[in-house]
Structures are given as structure tokens and as C-alpha cells.
Amino acid sequence: MESLETRLKVQAASLGFAACAIAPADVAPQAGKRLGEWLDAGHHGDMLWMEERAGQRGSPRGLWPDVRSVVMLGMSYAPGRDPLALADVPDRSRISVYAQGKDYHDVVKKGLKSLARWLVDQQPGALKVFVDTAPVMEKPLAQGAGLGWQGKHSNLVSRQHGSWLFLGAIYTEIALQPDAPEVDHCGSCTACQTACPTDAFPSPYVVDARRCISYLTIEHKGPIPHDLREGIGNRIYGCDDCLAVCPWNKFADQAAANKAFVGRAELAAPAIADLLALDDAAFREIFSGSPIKRIGRNRMVRNAAIAAGNSGDVRLLGRLQALAGDDDPVVAEAATWAIGRLSV
């Protein structure tokens, strides 16, 4: 009879997971130390929750003392087209590949819960499932389980799936046979470092969120620093540049991509002019079921105003002038900045 671990991986594949591997709970002993150094350097910006729960985040047992094994799962969202194709289309905006389809939190968690129920049926034992919203260091754990390695862009890189994996974790008190950890295959490559338009990498494997476009357009609530705005270009939600240039993507298995993450047509290349006109109701309607919905209308319009200022398209001045009196002062400031850029 096949082992529980083998049957677990077969079941995971049937639920849409492209990768499944197992690590012991103590697999990444240096992760907590690296996290502390990153926080001490202030690289987390105003993501205060990172420091508030650093003790729990530093190791699986810091969050749950009874955990014995960690099952790491990956769902592929490998894009079917070039994520950088809109770089030279200034009147269109760029949304990160991962956010163009269904909300990965919902899709991955549904798969994790189904797999967890199956595992308990096979061998009773307490367990917990996590998708990106708990203090879990998914990437070091995924490397420890053998799914891939943390590349110089700090994200996971897989030899089979490139940089395009959503990660989820099942913590369990069941003792499972672990897989071998993966080793670093980045070598001397610096493609991801040199591709960053805002110089967000102070050193390989370290990202300063305060300069990262994904952080600035998604997590950061206030005005975006002026010296970083030009580098943002037409990106209005996230950034794919450091992921997209990774040479390992040429081996990514497009067939393994979960169909739930196929991009919606209206999110592939939305017109900047349309985004500038959004009110709260229209924002909620367009981005329903998308991870984008969590940033709200004001942050989206702020981002669109910066993209407008970078576009060189004077036809946007009318929409921007209307936003210069917006009730949200951050939106109004971004619109005023963009007007100044387009009026030179």
C-alpha cells in the first residue's frame, strides 16, 4: 500500500495544487533571525503587523507549539502572456498577474480545507490551515519542504513552476515523513535585482518594502514618495518585473496553472482614464471577487493618478482636475502632482 505521504500528494494534485511537499516543524531555524534583522532595518515600512507578531512568525512552533509537520502546497498562476507587455502602452494600466483572476485567498484556502479534511480522515490529528493572512513564513518553509528556493528577489522560485506559485500551509500534529529541502539555484544571476525600477533591493535576497512598487501600490495608505513615482510607471496594483525576468520561468509548466487564476478580460489592461473616474460603488462592482478589492477606491484612484502623471497623455487632464478636489486628501494630492507633470 502506498504511504500516507504519497497519497497526500496525489490528493493535493486532484484538488488543483501543482506542488505539495512536507517539512518538519523546525525546518527553517534561521528564518526568525533573518526576519528580526529585516524588521530592525525598517524594511517592513508601515506593515506594523509584521513586528507585532514576529515571535509567532519566526517559526511554526512559535505560532502553534504542538505542530510536528508542515505540509506546504503551491498553486500555479503561470501567466499565459508576457507580464511586461504593457510597459510601453502609457494610456493603459498594469495590474500584477496574480490579481487578475479570482482571489487566491479564497481559492487556495478552499483547496487546503478539502485536503485537511482528507488528511484527518486518513489519520486523526489536529491541524491548522493558512493562506497569507497569518504569521507564517511560507517561503522559508516551502524551501525547507523542497518546493523551491527563495530567490534573490526574496520570492520562491521553482524549477518546475518558475516564480508563479501561490503558497499555502497545513500545520499538523501528525508526524509525516519530510521531503528533502531545495538548494539555491540563482548562481551569479542578478536579473531580478537590475530589473527593479525603484531599486528596492539593498542586497540580494533582501527587499526594502518602502521602495517596492507592490508595497507602495497595495499596502501603503498615504502619499507615495515623490522620488519613487516616476519608477512606478503605469503600474496601479503590484509589480511583476522582478518575477517576470527570472530565467527559471522558461521552465514554468503552463499546463499546471490553476484555471481559477486566468485573468479577467477587464483587468488585463484597464484604461487609466476609466480608473480615474471610479467612485466607491463602481470600484466595488469592478473588483468584486478580486484581491484588489481590499485596497479600496481611494488607493486605486491614487495609483491611477500617478500612472496618469507618468503617461504623458494630456487628454487625462480633465479627469485629474476633477480629482484635485477629491474628498480624500491623498487622492487630491496625487491628482495635483499628475496635473503638474502633464502641464509642463
UniProtKB/TrEMBL annotation:
InterPro entries: 4Fe4S_Fe-S-bd (IPR017896), 4Fe4S_Fe_S_CS (IPR017900), QueG (IPR004453), QueG_DUF1730 (IPR013542)
Residues involved in [4Fe-4S] cluster 2 binding: C196, C212, C239, C242
EC number: 1.17.99.6
Reaction equation(s) it catalyzes: epoxyqueuosine(34) in tRNA + AH2 = queuosine(34) in tRNA + A + H2O
Span of domain 4Fe-4S ferredoxin-type: 179-206
Family: Belongs to the QueG family.
Protein name (database record): Epoxyqueuosine reductase
Native organism: Sphingobium xenophagum
Name of the coding gene: queG
